[in-house]
Design the sequence.
């Protein structure tokens, strides 16, 4: 029974990993195979419905909606993945060093973490992006500034739990340096919960990145990006709902796939699920 459950978990992980990989490959290839120029404006065909030439219709400037969605896929998806990678690496390392060394460094960092977590994440990201100015790079920085704290807390708690373990004492007695102990023993033992958290965070970061662009703090028009497209179509929602509906559907599908992928990673790695 237990083996059958484990096999099903592996099958789900393979399935969702394959679909996420397919989505990422599509996002890389899509800008090069668009049916029309995503930035070409033609007011003569503005606000048209789906047709053979424009499968998802056109926007208020006569640009092909499908082409713009395909061209905007890398910006929305890979910027969110970049945020997760930055926060995962930075937050994990800071948390490991805090838990391992403790003392004043740990106390100062934890108070900084408390200050960051006292505000809702998206509100703080909006404030940081507003200070830095609009732009995709600044949006990535804003979300990274907000997102590292969860990894720091998780990594620190894992290190504190294993500081008194026998293998840690044996490593110190054997004469291993602190860096060797951290990177050979501490990080590998703390990695599973951090990887699970990172996998579950990608979908949320796609939503937050699109939200910043929708609010005018991320990518800027005329750049093809899903949040920007929803912002451009919001004033015409009642007359031409497809202008905001189609990019919203692609955001929904991307977030759903990454969330299901994160759930399968959690089921595979999280010991509490076993």
Sequence:
């Amino acid at each position: 029974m237990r083996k059958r459950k484990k096999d099903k978990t592996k099958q789900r992980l393979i399935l969702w990993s394959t679909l996420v990989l397919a989505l990422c490959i599509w996002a890389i290839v899509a800008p090069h195979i668009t049916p029309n120029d995503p930035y070409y404006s033609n007011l003569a065909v503005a606000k048209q419905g789906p047709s053979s030439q424009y499968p998802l219709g056109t926007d208020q400037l006569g640009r092909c909606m499908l082409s713009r969605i395909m061209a905007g896929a890398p910006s929305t998806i890979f910027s969110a993945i970049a945020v997760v990678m930055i926060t995962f690496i930075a937050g994990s390392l800071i948390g490991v060093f805090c838990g391992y060394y403790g003392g004043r460094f740990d106390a100062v960092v934890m108070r900084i973490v408390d200050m960051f977590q006292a505000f809702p994440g998206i509100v703080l990201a909006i404030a940081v992006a507003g200070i830095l100015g609009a732009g995709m790079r600044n949006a990535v920085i804003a979300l990274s500034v907000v997102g590292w704290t969860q990894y720091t807390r998780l990594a620190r708690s894992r290190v504190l739990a294993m500081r008194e373990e026998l293998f840690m004492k044996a490593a110190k007695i054997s004469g291993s340096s602190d860096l060797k102990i951290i990177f050979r023993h501490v990080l590998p033992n703390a990695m599973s919960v951090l990887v699970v958290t990172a996998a579950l965070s990608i979908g949320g970061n796609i939503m937050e990145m699109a939200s910043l662009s929708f609010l005018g703090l991320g990518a800027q028009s005329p750049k093809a990006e899903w949040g920007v497209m929803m912002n451009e179509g919001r004033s015409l929602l009642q007359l031409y709902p497809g202008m905001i509906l189609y990019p919203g559907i692609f955001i929904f599908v991307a977030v759903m796939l990454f969330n299901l992928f994160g759930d399968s990673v959690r089921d595979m790695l999280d010991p509490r699920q076993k």
Q: What stands out?
A: The mean pLDDT is 88. The two ends are 12 Å apart (CA to CA). DSSP finds nine helices and no strands in the chain. The chain has one domain: 2-30+64-273.
